[in-house]
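Our platform keeps sequence and structure together, in a single record for each protein. Nothing more is needed to write down the fold, since each code stands for a local backbone conformation. An entry from our holdings is shown next, in its original layout:
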Amino acid sequence: MAFRKLYSSDVLVLGTVSFIESLAFSIPFSYFPNYAISLGATVASIGLFTSSFMAASALLSPKIGSVSDKIGRKKIMLWGLLGDIIFGALTGLVPTWQWLLLVRTINGAVTAAATLPAEALLIDKVPLERRGEAVGFVASCAIIGRNVGPAFGGSTQYIASQFLDVISSYRVPYFVDAAFAASAMILVAWKISEKTTNPSKLSTNVTSPDSDVPPSPSRTDVKVKYPRAFKILLATAFANGIALGFILPIIALFFQDKFGLEPIVIGSIMTIAGLAGFLASWIAGRISDQLGRKPLIAIGGFSTRSCGLILPFSADIGQAAFLLSIRSLGFNIFMPAMQALRADIVPKEVRGKLFGLYNTFFTAGDIVGPIVSTLLYDIFRFTSWNVGGLSIPGYGIPFYVNSILGIITTAVLLLFVQETVGAKHQAKKEAQDISAS
């Protein structure tokens, strides 16, 4: 009965949408540079396509979240998925790289509209005492999609190349992407209910999620005084975005420079590491409901950063693959607890808006990370230092910087952010508040 209470059709559909959107985002990873170059782009400009996609998502996320607070999550999700269908298909039809850049930029905005309200909707739909488990379940769905996507996209492109010319084969996966978005749109329209998706009818003067001041239902403008804890979470979100973007663009270079591996081997290691512990997100979220968010944040945050520090010193491929897998496992434990903590702190009346602001900070880090990491890697790639008899490889600089930044921000969060969950305690408090009113 408890299982059915949490894993309603709403939650299962949101997990499916998370899988589909993550799959769609990662489908072109294995061939996108070749597609852009075949349309006339230069190698140096390839980063613009990812940055423009992420920047559009970051800039519009707060507005998208705010609108979802006012008119409902489901409506924004449907418009976002419709945009994914249209611009996913257009990505496979563009004639030049300039059009590809424009379409990718707009696609970043509509993808935010499809995914951001889903995060808030999930929190709207699940019991407080099972919030971490629900977030972990959806995160696991996203992890699977993100790591299956490159193999799926590459396979689709390869099959298409047996029947079409090369540039046309690059286009085909985008039509498959659009078909996935269409299936997600149908599921949302059919299965997601509108109940509890229009928080604008609730409180209007918002100070904290547990404010003792009764809401004023007569006003429709929401003025938000950000809790200090949320401001700290924004800084942490930026650091986590950097962590995600810092290592991804240089990991292939690292394995090539240190071990001389071929791309197919590197790709296999990355896929296996990415999938490592994908169920850990689900389990970690559930445990955080019982023990609190901070223990999982500490275990996941410090373990993933420690592995990042050690990775450049790995003696062989096996050690490097193991450390990369543990790093991924730690991140999969860390993120659901972080997302649940964010949901605990954010006032429900403006959940969409503040989730959007959080996403902006996270995405900003994800944009800055690749730029800084590739610059540092290029500068120190062939340098090394001898410190007390220990050889410090220069190609490890991005790993060291990223890990130290992560350790500091995780420690600040643990020290200065007070939990509102112990979920059972908080659920009891909310029940008492409801009874009192």
Remarks:
- The radius of gyration is 22 Å.
- Strands lie at 205-206, 223-224, 384-387, 390-393.
- Confidence is low (pLDDT under 50) at residues 197-221.
